[in-house]
């Protein structure tokens, strides 16, 4: 029986609170999930057997498997991330659910995922190719769905050179164009960060939600660096470094240590670390016992994190007081 | 690549009839999945203070805060009734219930604005900014 190191109460199956008191083994399949998703996800499908589709695709930063969600028409793509703290369970109506995770489906620009394949093709072949020969993946066959997103075709010109021979179009990755596009992404992210009271400075601040409590000594660079960190979660490491140069981000004189990510995390880890993303419980057991061992996603983040920039995970990670 | 990673279809046919559920995120692990008489033992013990909710749960004092699902988002409880026997069959999860708010409970101290979950609820807004198409005027 695992016991929490901190004084969290244990609630076992008991007759008074939990009905029968029978416990399912901890490694049994989770068969129920709590998800917060954009309203369009619940748009009814045109065909009765259709519906949104959860599928695994390559995380465009790490190349590892991650969970995504296509809406019914397969025109919108969402990434699924799990918010998870240790020692959490749900009461849902008149039931209890052991798995205390809250999944978030949030929009993701499918061009990031296509870009991963364009960069790969550029490294391997370095020539103009039809898109359907670039975006193929024997391990992630759903990746071809990306090419059916109207938005991908509309925005492809931001990241490629194009050639038309006969009636066929051929494409090649353009780093120069991509950096210009990414800079626009950074700019639009900075705008939202500025209006969102998110703490982007080096110091850990509390009460980021209380309006009017803006930190006054935050510089423009802090916002740009923060936005760069967020966007770096969607591009390969090399490109992230190129983007940092392109944005002329000054080197940090004293790279700050990111807050520990262990206790609370909001990352790909729970969803992508497992072959089968429904096996949430077993992976947690492992993580809990060896908290010093980093998950694949954390390792990947640690790599990207060299410049001390903030990342999405740092944004969601615990303040030091809440960690041990 | 194992077949267990096959896609999962979300069956929305129960969307109209799906009940609204009340959700509580507890600060402890309950090693059980299944029915629990929440309305009999937990809900009646909740006290609404001026700032926060409080409840006594298994002899411990919990402090809670009700949070609203971000604007433009919906809360969904998804359930896989039966996992296919063979891995070739498409897996399906159905919409079991929906929710618009949830209550986060902590031990002793009420969740503050920098609590993980409350911060995480601001992620959708940031994600929209990162992933919106680059605006026309900047093109």
TrEMBL record, chain A:
Residues 1-13 have a biased composition (Basic residues). CDD domains: RNase_H2-B (cd09270). The keyword NAD does not apply. GO terms for cellular component: nucleoplasm; ribonuclease H2 complex. Pfam families: RNase_H2-Ydr279, Ydr279_N. It is found in: Nucleus. The keyword Ribonucleoprotein does not apply. Keywords: Nucleus. Residues 112-243 form the Ribonuclease H2 subunit B wHTH domain. InterPro entries: RNase_H2_suB, RNase_H2_suB_wHTH, Rnh202_N. Residues 54-109 form the Rnh202 triple barrel domain. Non catalytic subunit of RNase H2, an endonuclease that specifically degrades the RNA of RNA:DNA hybrids. Participates in DNA replication, possibly by mediating the removal of lagging-strand Okazaki fragment RNA primers during DNA replication. Mediates the excision of single ribonucleotides from DNA:RNA duplexes. Belongs to the RNase H2 subunit B family. The RNase H2 complex is a heterotrimer composed of the catalytic subunit RNASEH2A and the non-catalytic subunits RNASEH2B and RNASEH2C. This is Ribonuclease H2 subunit B. It comes from Chrysemys picta bellii. The lineage of its organism: Eukaryota, Metazoa, Chordata, Craniata, Vertebrata. The gene is RNASEH2B.
From TrEMBL, chain B:
GO terms for cellular component: ribonuclease H2 complex. It comes from the Eukaryota. Coiled coil: none annotated. Gene3D superfamilies: 2.40.128.680. GO terms for biological process: RNA catabolic process. CDD domains: RNase_H2-C. InterPro entries: RNase_H2_subunit_C, RNase_H2_suC. Pfam families: RNase_H2_suC. This is Uncharacterized protein.
